[in-house]
Amino acid sequence: MLRLYTYFRSSAAYRVRIALALKGLAYESVPVHLLRGGGEQHQQGYHAVNPAALVPALQDGPHTLTQSLAIMEYLDEAYPATAALLPPDALGRARVRALALAVACDIHPLNNLRVLRYLNHPLEQPEEVRNTWARHWMGLGLAAMEQELARSPHTGLCCHGDAPTLADCCLIPQAFNARRFSLDLAAWPTVQRIVAHCEALEPFAAAHPARQPDAE
Hints:
This protein has 216 residues and is α+β, with helices and mostly antiparallel strands. It contains 9 helices and 4 strands, in the order E-H-E-H-E-E-H-H-H-H-H-H-H.
């Protein structure tokens, strides 16, 4: 049985939940509350799972994997009989990885929980400054993704073709974060179209934060 250490509102964990749902893989959900009691991710028990004190972490038997993109690629390789998360061709895989990394490396790290909490303390920035910071970096990254998606003949109903890939697993949680910070996706019509299409698919809906056992 796969075991996923997750937090309902973590966009990195959200990515992996989407990937698991797309591949039809059953798993045990182990919630790690990132706020309660100073953050359960900092407790010794979770440090034994992931010394970085981040979610998600995935256990497959005796093996523990961390980092959402590494986890998703592992799932694709370890369970090849289910839906593929990467295209069959080298150029397609490179494009999908680039789109996924644009979210995971360029956008998300600048607006994740620990960065925003650092802006609060010790830097003592008010909430509106933190929200403006998050919207700025999300907007910059989504604008670049819009240009790439809009200009490429490889863009279909999803980021690459008509079937969801790693790129969509990353984009949809980032869109969820954007809405949380009152960032309107209408400025990026291709992004908005892809998000709307994917969110209507059951695997994406099942992975939504509101449908998780630890949702608040």
